[in-house]
Amino acid sequence: MQTKLINNKGLVIGGNKIILIAGPCAVESKELYTSTVNNLKYVDILRGGAFKPRTNPDSFLGLENKGIEILLESQKELNKPVVTELTKESNLNLFNDIDYIQVGARNMQNFELLKALGRTNKTIILKRGFGNTIDELLEAAHYIKKEGNENIVLVERGIRTFETSTRFTLDLSSIAVIKAKSTYPVFVDPSHAAGTKEYVESLAKAAIAAGADGIMIETHINPEKALSDSKQALTVDEYNDLVLKLDKVAKAIGRTIL
Ligand code: PEP
Ligand code: MN
């Protein structure tokens, strides 16, 4: 089906231009955040989690309100929108100035959260649960749409399979299936699928060749020191180099990325 465009303040998702989302897994401090995102040469939407739904409650759970503040400062300083994860409706008031709201894999079927987001006019970046089928992802999106918000982007970020050599298995076929069954733009997050930075490049290239409308890549100024997902984060230089390679793949299929 024809992908429906989402135009959020002039940034068009689902068109010829492939959208780049980059930044660290989590916002860890003002210094670390700005030293990462200020050095990204090509990026459309800055990412970074302030509320982190982690599997282990003893791990870093995010700076919460302070993290949102840091994101909003960068949004203003760089004049680029940010995307960050919302984990519960009661925090929505902190997201007034945030145009892109991420629903994480672990919350894909948090139906009350989806309904609440359906009552906003934000662009929702809905990540596929790693134990969920494509049809379940489409049904989750329908919860948002049914409340009136049609600004939804679906993100393939890998699913759990018997394969353990990557963190998750990137289901590239989901791009074709979602495009056949719906009009939602599809982004791919190769970082969480790979789990290790050495695999990010080939997965990102494959995602673009397969028709992804955007990619989300975790980057960090000093990946070894990252408080979450350190093994999969690219340095800013690696990211900047990667985008130039992705541009060649995009051009080969008649799209642009820069
Ligand atoms: C993230 O984007 O940092 C994240 C937690 O992703 P996911 O929900 O896909 O695991
Ligand atoms: Mn992460």
Fold and architecture overview:
This protein is an alpha/beta fold and 258 residues long. Helix content is 33%, strand content 16%. The chain contains eight helices and ten strands. It has helices at residues 30-37, 65-78, 111-118, 134-146, 173-181, 190-194, 200-209, 236-252; strands at residues 6-8, 11-13, 19-23, 45-47, 82-85, 100-103, 123-127, 152-156, 186-188, 214-218. An eight-stranded parallel β-barrel has the order 3-4-5-6-7-8-9-10, surrounded by five helices. It has a two-stranded antiparallel sheet with strand order 1-2. β6, α3 (111-118) and β7 form a beta-alpha-beta unit. α3 packs across α4 (134-146) and α7 runs parallel beside α8 (236-252). The longest helix is centred in the last third of the chain and has 17 residues, at 236-252. The radius of gyration is 17 Å and the shape is globular. The two termini are 26 Å apart. The structure holds phosphoenolpyruvate (PEP) and manganese (II) ion. The site of phosphoenolpyruvate has 8 residues, from loops.
